Amino acid sequence: MNIPKILHKRKYEFLLAALLIHLFIAVLLYDLDFYTNIIWPLNMLILGIFSLGIFSEKSRMQLIFKNILLALIIFLPISIIYLKPTPLMMELINIAHIAFYCYIFIEVLRYLLKPSYINSDIVSASACGYLLLIEIGIFSMQAIYYGTTNPFKGIDTTSFTTIYLDIVYFCSITVTSIGFGDIVPSNHYAKLATSILGIAGQFYSVVLVGIMISKYTSETGNSSKK
């Protein structure tokens, strides 16, 4: 079995599954310490492996950069298990995650703009882009949380894990425009970042619909000429 070939052929399906697991696996878990110490590093390792297919045809420098970011997002969170998490350490973790997810997000967008047809890869890549936008929002909000004073009201501050999970929830309902109001931004950094995230979510959805319609129109047009 050629695993690299399988990862490349089904790269967007695998990436979508890894993102869903990373964002929402905690809904199946009761022990948050187990989630932090075991599941989180395992999630990041799975996400790194399942993102290999997207970078399989990239240059050596791009692969090196991606692997450096992957190493950072795996080993920096593990260090929290053995060291007291300081604001500086949390900011480094957030910056590394933002860079990693932005890097993948850009590659997904490039792919969405290329083909003139719709297939399962396009649908999976579209969903990946949406979840990657949420991931970028999560670690951007965490950077604001640890870098400013009183950025949010309603977040469970029991541990950095509960903070993270509440921010996952907050970013998910912001991007989807649900906005229950149980967690709200309370300083201007958080308010503006939340506004940008909400606008980005709507913009992505609108542009994605336009891309899909364009691809479908192009595909049906080409079929009618044959």
UniProtKB/TrEMBL annotation:
<feature type="transmembrane region" description="Helical">
    <location>
        <begin position="63"/>
        <end position="83"/>
    </location>
</feature>
<dbReference type="Pfam" id="PF07885">
    <property type="entry name" value="Ion_trans_2"/>
</dbReference>
<feature type="transmembrane region" description="Helical">
    <location>
        <begin position="196"/>
        <end position="216"/>
    </location>
</feature>
<keyword id="KW-0812">Transmembrane</keyword>
<feature type="transmembrane region" description="Helical">
    <location>
        <begin position="125"/>
        <end position="147"/>
    </location>
</feature>
<dbReference type="InterPro" id="IPR013099">
    <property type="entry name" value="K_chnl_dom"/>
</dbReference>
<keyword id="KW-0472">Membrane</keyword>
<feature type="domain" description="Potassium channel">
    <location>
        <begin position="148"/>
        <end position="216"/>
    </location>
</feature>
<keyword id="KW-1133">Transmembrane helix</keyword>
<feature type="transmembrane region" description="Helical">
    <location>
        <begin position="12"/>
        <end position="32"/>
    </location>
</feature>
<feature type="transmembrane region" description="Helical">
    <location>
        <begin position="167"/>
        <end position="184"/>
    </location>
</feature>
<protein>
    <submittedName>
        <fullName>Ion channel</fullName>
    </submittedName>
</protein>
<feature type="transmembrane region" description="Helical">
    <location>
        <begin position="38"/>
        <end position="56"/>
    </location>
</feature>
<feature type="transmembrane region" description="Helical">
    <location>
        <begin position="95"/>
        <end position="113"/>
    </location>
</feature>
